[in-house]
Design brief:
The structure is a single chain. This protein is an all-alpha fold and 51 residues long. It has one domain. It contains 3 helices and no strands. The longest helix has 16 residues. The radius of gyration is 10 Å and the shape is globular. The chain starts with a helix and ends with a helix.
Length: 51
């Protein structure tokens, strides 16, 4: 649970700091920016955004 909360915080900070020209960002782009490795990268990003 703690790791999921950290991922949600990291995703939020990354999106808030992203230049407007880079938005919107795909789930795959966000996963890469967060340094996530397969499997289930898209699922983890989706869960982080919903947290």
């Amino acid at each position: 649970m703690k790791h999921e909360a950290q991922l949600a915080t990291q995703a939020r900070r990354l999106l808030e700091a992203a230049p407007a020209a880079t938005l919107p960002m795909t789930y795959q782009q966000l996963a890469e920016a967060l340094g996530l490795k397969p499997p289930r990268t898209i699922q983890r990003v989706a869960q982080a955004l919903e947290a």
